[in-house]
Amino acid sequence: MSEMPSPVLSAAEFQRRLLAWFDVHGRHDLPWQQERTPYRVWVSEIMLQQTQVATVIPYFERFMARFPTVRELAVAHQDEVLHLWTGLGYYARGRNLHKAAGVLLDEHGGDFPMDAEALAALPGIGRSTAGAIIAQSSGERAVILDGNVKRSLARLHAVEGWPGRPAVERRLWALAEHYTPHERLVDYTQAVMDLGATLCRRGTPECGRCPFADVCLAHARGAERRFPESKPKKSLPTRTTRMLLLRDARGRVLLEQRPASGLWGGLWSLPQFDDEAALTAWLDSHAPGSAIESAGAPFLHVFSHFRLEITPQPARVERLDAVGETRRWYDPENPDAVGLAAPVKSLLTSLAPLALDAPPGPYTHEEIDP
Q: Using the 8-state DSSP alphabet, how is residue 255 labeled?
């Protein structure tokens, strides 16, 4: 099998059609398109990974208001960064953004190296994101292949196989390289992403409005939804956990910081236990005299690799000494600026002055952080 299917159009014709469509129908007023800088493009590209534009816009605007430069992001505490990321999901993105800002400040004086290989070496930046930063901020030629572009090219050429497989990805990169122009790189990069995001969508492609409908091989076969092939599915195992909602006399809730890597890495969460016996033993050891209340209704939080069934377990304690560096009291009515795991944030928000109301859930498709 060849590395690249034969292009259905010349590069010049593909670019002409795409840019003509973009000039009329593309997105030209997104926040990160204003005052384009490598920093603003970078933050937007990271936020847009696995996340829709409408969801990203308010997060991006808040993030830019608080961290307008690489330096301000680099010197901030991770808790504040993750606090502004809370609810956006895929929290490794926020941690890597913070780490990369530190590298940029320490090794590059806060500037971005306009070299794809150097950019891709930064935490959380891969080949496509590096290309987007260069093309969008400098106008220099750089190739991108995000999820939207993969889908459009896979359909246009009826590329068989899941794009996560190396051989399939190589073919798609070759096509992306073939079609990428040497001029109007800023517009082309946005246009090729917009095509997949607004027309060549995953479940409901609008082929009647597509500038490539007459040459799209998947459309000719009536098989648009077959391409690209989905990742082979595995059955998701279900794990269970009990989250301790330990409140003191002032109504504050005890939180623990998760380890730096792994599930909800670096975020603040409720103490978690495998079962009721383990939770009770912890209370006896760390908070003697606690009064355990009726457990809340279990709910599901679904990750990419497993489902987590969470049972909220309220309890009361008069006081708890020596909270320590990895534990803190959190006041739901006057919340701290800390990063919270999504179900924890929902549980804390649902706390009435003295009771747990309206349990959250279900949640779906949160990525497991590496």
A: E
